[in-house]
Task: structure prediction
Amino acid sequence: YNRGLTPHPTENYPEASESTLFELTLKGRNVKAEEFQLQGDLCVDGSCDQHVVQGLRRASWAVVQIDGEGLEVAAARGTVPAQFIQSSQTGEYACLSAVLQLITGPCRVFSDCSNVVRDWARPDEKTNLKSAHGGLVASAKVEKTAEWVQDVVKVKAHQNLKTAAAKSTPADLRLAKGN
Result:
């Protein structure tokens, strides 16, 4: 494809969407945005398919509200718009931004991304707007719902539930299930 002999691999696949495509669930059923309720303990995560052809990478995010036993109460998931870098890191930051647009009451956010936790805790004047994700952090912090975020807490990533159950307190296991 670099000499015009074959089509570029991205020509056979749909382009990343210009807007966020998302799905909302409440107690296991799909709901419209007007019906959606998100508050309490929220586990967030971002991801990206790391295809060798950069144009085929697609980033996404998800947030799950968990109850006292670590079971899903509400969930939202969506895509990262095409104008952003399609990377796992962008998925993490896009998730924080989505949470601020979706929450309906006080919450604590649990993230496995140290950068998201660090950048949320930084004072506004220290936000690096020149960084690839600085705008997502800055826009999240000015949402009117930002005052509902009581804390953004770092949790361990990629936990095995059997191992976590053997070593963890009930509270830690609940977060491992959510993450």
